[in-house]
């Protein structure tokens, strides 16, 4: 008997297969299609002959952990204890899975803010706990009155994603003030802050939970080198949490993967010596603007994109189709694969919106826009 009988083939797999079958341009899955930095390629070749191919310590490669400590201080003015508050993981997905498995107990409830990425619910269910889906406002800002209405004595944890996938929305100062006020009323509530797109922020600076002193002692914060360094296939992330929570997360991590790929950790450690973290936002802001300019000649209405490499667009003023049918038609008739936003909602809310990934080279973006201009 299946533990997860409701799970079927993911929409990301479906749309990518359709893209192949119909020779469509794939703007559905969230990964870059351009080469890695040549400096990183050179580092990998050099390290292939070095002594970096055995297990690292369970918590991570010590030199890289030191670099993460420096990066966290520089970015957020937070000093972390690398021995007790930091864990390098097999991508942010493993960090999220390990944290939820470690901290959520049978019978607990976990609040998920919809639309939400699909990796949150499964570890909750495998903990014999209950995911409680709470919709964001239509502009993807948090609705704290609605959140408070869903908190009960069983509520263990609240998951937030900032910058937000799929919408590209970022939380502002007032959002965090309201969250801090909420936690004063519910002091036992934990926060899992998914910040994998933290270094892909545009006009406004990303506000990390790392900067919120009132939240740090009850927060687990996940990050992704895969997203930041355009190395999604490496699956290298990390998690920052206070010692009393990290102790429990490490217990799960130890028996889930024990340690993370040693060559990748060593390569990232060396690469960070020459990599300018500020270049990430500049790169993707230029791609966002390039894509948006081309999309002016399509009937789509683009919603604001504060961060991430995703652009949400509305088609409600020119089609009444549900978003799944609409995205399938885009593939079969116009040769562009995207993602319908309804799949990010527990109740299938359909606002006639779809998600594009613009983490692509200029040629791909241009060809996709030219096809969409024929709508």
Structural classification: alpha/beta
User: Order of strands across the biggest sheet?
Assistant: 2-8-7-6-5-3-4
Helix content: 25-40%
Give the CATH topology of the largest domain.
Answer: Aspartate Aminotransferase, domain 2
Q: Which CATH architecture of the largest domain? A: 3-Layer(aba) Sandwich
* First and last CA, distance: 46 Å
Beta-strand percentage range: 5-15%
Mean pLDDT: 97
Shape: globular
Poorly predicted regions: none
According to DSSP, the number of beta strands is 13
Radius of gyration from the alpha-carbon trace, in angstroms: 21 Å
Helix/strand order: HEHHEHEHEHEHEEHEHHHEEHEEEH
- Main sheet, how many strands, which sense, barrel? 7 strands, mixed
CATH C-level of the largest domain: Alpha Beta
CATH superfamily of the largest domain: Type I PLP-dependent aspartate aminotransferase-like (Major domain)
Number of domains: 2
**How many H/I helices?**
13
Describe this structure in words.
- The chain has two domains: 11-30 and 277-372, Aspartate Aminotransferase, domain 1 (Alpha-Beta Complex), CATH 3.90.1150; 39-271, Aspartate Aminotransferase, domain 2.
- Helix content is 38%, strand content 15%.
- It contains 13 helices and 13 strands.
- The chain has helices at residues 11-21, 38-47, 62-76, 91-103, 121-126, 144-149, 173-185, 225-228, 243-256, 262-271, 278-295, 323-334, 362-372; strands at residues 25-26, 86-89, 109-114, 130-135, 155-161, 190-194, 219-224, 237-240, 301-302, 310-314, 336-337, 339-340, 353-357.
- Helix 2 (38-47) crosses helix 10 and helix 11 (278-295) packs parallel to helix 13.
- The N and C termini lie far apart (46 Å).
- The model has no long low-confidence stretch (mean pLDDT 97).
């Amino acid at each position: 008997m299946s533990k997860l009988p409701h799970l079927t083939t993911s929409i990301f797999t479906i749309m990518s297969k359709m893209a192949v079958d119909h020779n469509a341009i794939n703007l559905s899955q969230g990964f870059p299609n351009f080469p890695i930095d040549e400096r990183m390629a050179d580092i990998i070749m050099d390290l292939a002959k070095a002594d970096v191919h055995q297990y690292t310590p369970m918590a991570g490669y010590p030199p890289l952990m030191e670099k993460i400590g420096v990066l966290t201080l520089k970015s957020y003015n937070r000093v972390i204890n690398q021995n007790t508050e930091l864990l390098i993981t097999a991508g942010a997905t493993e960090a999220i899975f390990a944290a939820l498995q470690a901290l959520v107990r049978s019978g607990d409830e976990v609040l998920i803010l919809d639309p939400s990425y699909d990796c949150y619910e499964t570890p909750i269910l495998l903990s014999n706990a209950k995911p409680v889906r709470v919709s964001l406002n239509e502009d993807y800002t948090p609705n704290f009155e609605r959140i408070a209405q869903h908190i009960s004595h069983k509520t263990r944890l609240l998951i937030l994603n900032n910058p937000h996938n799929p919408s590209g929305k970022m939380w502002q100062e007032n959002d965090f003030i309201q969250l801090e006020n909420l936690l004063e009323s519910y002091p036992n509530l934990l926060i899992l802050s998914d910040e994998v797109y933290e270094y892909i922020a545009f006009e406004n600076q990303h506000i990390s939970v790392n900067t919120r002193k009132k939240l740090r002692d009850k927060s687990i914060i996940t990050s992704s080198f895969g997203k930041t360094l355009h190395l999604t296939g490496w699956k290298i992330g990390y998690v920052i949490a206070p010692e009393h929570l990290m102790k429990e997360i490490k217990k799960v991590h130890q028996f889930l993967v024990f340690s993370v790929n040693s060559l990748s950790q060593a390569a990232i450690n060396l690469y960070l010596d020459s990599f300018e973290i500020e270049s990430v936002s500049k790169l993707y802001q230029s791609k966002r603007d390039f894509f948006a300019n081309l999309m002016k000649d399509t009937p789509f209405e683009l919603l604001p994109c504060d961060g991430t490499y995703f652009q949400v667009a509305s088609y409600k003023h020119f089609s009444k189709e549900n978003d799944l049918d609409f995205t399938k038609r885009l593939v079969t008739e116009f040769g562009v694969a995207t993602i319908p936003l309804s799949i990010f909602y527990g109740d299938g809310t359909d606002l006639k919106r779809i998600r594009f990934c613009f983490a692509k080279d200029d040629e791909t973006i241009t060809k996709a826009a030219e096809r969409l201009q024929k709508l």
